[in-house]
Design goal:
alpha/beta, five-stranded parallel beta sheet, 18 strands
């Protein structure tokens, strides 16, 4: 039996309960078997193989990023222009860095070939579990059609097993066929661009993309495989189209209003607001090489996005957490929680990145909270994020990360031996 004990740690379990101070948490065969006050008989009853001194630390569930793009290494949100061998090595670095920062699950929202998820699951690559969306579906002239207006019909192709570029499809039949293709190649859910975006070269931000019938075609195929569709939507018309088609999750939801939020709640749909990427791009606009038109689109979303999040909280929308960060480094993934906390508070930001995201991906029985019976994906940090959310945003403050009961980051030992 593989066993581990974390002793004397403060526990924020993300169930809504207050912080429990000085607890002993026991893990056996990758799952939590006991949480009890430190020194009690229940806590002392396990002959643990590994003991972590949790005194002065806070334990939270493993973090989740529901809108990752680990293969979009270009600062402009594309795959970049590295040689393929270097591209693969850099993707592996990004994946490993996410784990070190406390993220034990990533839902990749497009661009990453499913083979990377397979390699992580088999232990060939060190990183969080990855739920890949594969290639995103875009209409001609949509957010995923990356040709400048003066270019003709050729687009860089997807290379199965290496890079998942956007697939441009039009019509119900083409959407049906490409959805099946993504699932065949290993996508665990399907991503579609249902409206305009900031970085794409030709589509207005307010444009509505794909018909309801086209989106519904993907939803029908995904449901037949036991999975779902999530859609990129900034505006209300795009959100209503996606809801009409039966999607499970809306990405961004920037221009949220009460009517749309109420419908989202009634239909049990999740929303994943993303804040970090726009902060990054606006702060490093020259390095990203973005145009004045793209800057204007990003700036136009800022105020609406924060107000939309307040509406979602007020109306009870199930809000998961995603960063949408891109580029060659992709560090400080946890700053997404800091950005959200500034609008909705520390606890809601933390719950979004744990319990609610676990519900979104269909893993609430195993992940997302610190409870007996759950998989021991756990993070120990040197501050209580309910009081100081920066404890999860600064990588140096993440002392331990456990994935399935195994210690995969031990900052204290690394510091002691440095």
């Amino acid at each position: 039996m593989n066993s581990l004990a974390i002793v004397g740690v403060d526990v924020v379990d993300c169930t809504g309960a207050p912080t429990r101070e000085r607890q002993d948490v026991l893990v056996e065969n990758g799952r939590i078997t006991s949480i009890a006050p430190s020194g009690t008989a229940a806590a002392a009853s396990s002959d643990s193989g590994v003991v972590i001194d949790g005194a002065g630390l806070t334990l939270v569930p493993g973090l989740m990023d529901a809108h990752a793009h680990v293969a979009l290494l270009g600062s402009d949100g594309t795959h970049g222009d590295l040689p393929w061998a270097e591209h693969v090595l850099q993707v592996v670095d990004v994946i490993g860095r996410a784990l070190d920062e406390g993220f034990t699950t990533l839902r990749d929202a497009c661009g990453t070939e499913p083979i990377f998820a397979t390699l992580v699951a088999s232990g060939r690559i060190r990183g969080p579990r990855i739920l890949p969306s594969g290639s995103v579906l875009s209409q001609t002239g949509g957010h995923g059609d990356l040709r400048p207006a003066h270019h003709g019909g050729s687009r860089p192709p997807t290379i199965p097993g290496l890079v998942a570029r956007p697939e441009v499809v039009d019509g119900v039949d083409a959407v049906t066929r490409m959805t099946r293709e993504q699932l065949r190649r290993g996508a665990t859910q399907i991503k579609m661009f249902a409206g305009g975006g900031a970085l794409s070269p030709t589509d207005p931000l307010e444009s509505v993309q794909f018909t309801v019938d086209e989106i519904r075609a993907a939803v029908t195929v995904a449901r037949s495989w036991g999975t779902y569709v999530h859609t990129h939507c900034h505006t209300r018309p795009t959100m209503h189209n996606a809801l009409d088609a039966g999607v499970r999750c809306i990405e961004h939801g920037t221009d949220m209003d009460e009517e749309t939020a109420d419908r989202i709640v009634a239909e049990g749909v999740f929303v994943v607001p993303t804040l970090s990427v726009s902060y990054d791009l606006l702060q490093a606009r020259e390095a990203a090489g973005i145009t004045p038109a793209q800057i204007a689109k990003l700036e136009s979303m800022q105020g609406r996005r924060d107000e939309g999040m307040r509406v979602m909280v007020d109306r009870g929308v199930k809000m998961a957490s995603g960063s949408d960060i891109v580029g060659p480094v992709q560090d400080r993934r946890g700053r997404e929680l800091t950005h959200k906390a500034a609008v909705i508070g520390n606890e809601r930001a933390l719950v979004a990145a744990t319990r609610t995201t676990a519900e979104l991906i269909g893993r609430a029985d195993d992940l997302g909270t610190v409870e007996v019976g759950k998989i021991a994906d756990l993070v120990l940090t040197d501050g209580n994020p309910l009081d100081d959310i920066e404890a999860l945003a600064a990588p140096s403050r993440i002392q331990y990360v456990l994935q399935g009961g195994r210690v995969v980051r031990d900052q204290r030992s690394a510091t002691a031996t440095a």
